[in-house]
Amino acid sequence: DDPWQKEMARAVQEGCQIVAKSANFCKLMTISTATFDDVQAANAVILGSSVQDANTHYAVQQWIDQEWILSEMLPDKIGAAFVTAGGISAGQEGAL
User: Fold this and answer.
1) How far apart are CA 32 and CA 68, in angstroms?
2) Angstrom distance (rounded) from CA 4 to CA 85
3) What is the pLDDT of residues 27-68, one digit of tens each?
4) Rg (CA), the chain
5) How far apart are CA 31 and CA 58, in angstroms?
């Protein structure tokens, strides 16, 4: 559990709610509770990860690497990503 990642995720959710003008429009979910059905039902998906050894967190990568063919299953989905890292030049560019 990365407190900076949680803080960033809450800030992204808050920004989404302001843009959408609805508190119910933007759901904050974790990879332990989000399912592919949730992803398919969403208008947009913003995925966040902490950086470990200049890579996406292993649990996030494992979630992404499930048997999904994202380019075929989500071709029209709006997507974004963010990462949190422990310092300058901590590998955040590569993890994105």
Assistant:
1) 16
2) 8
3) 888 888 888 888 888 888 888 888 888 888 888 888 888 867
4) 14
5) 11
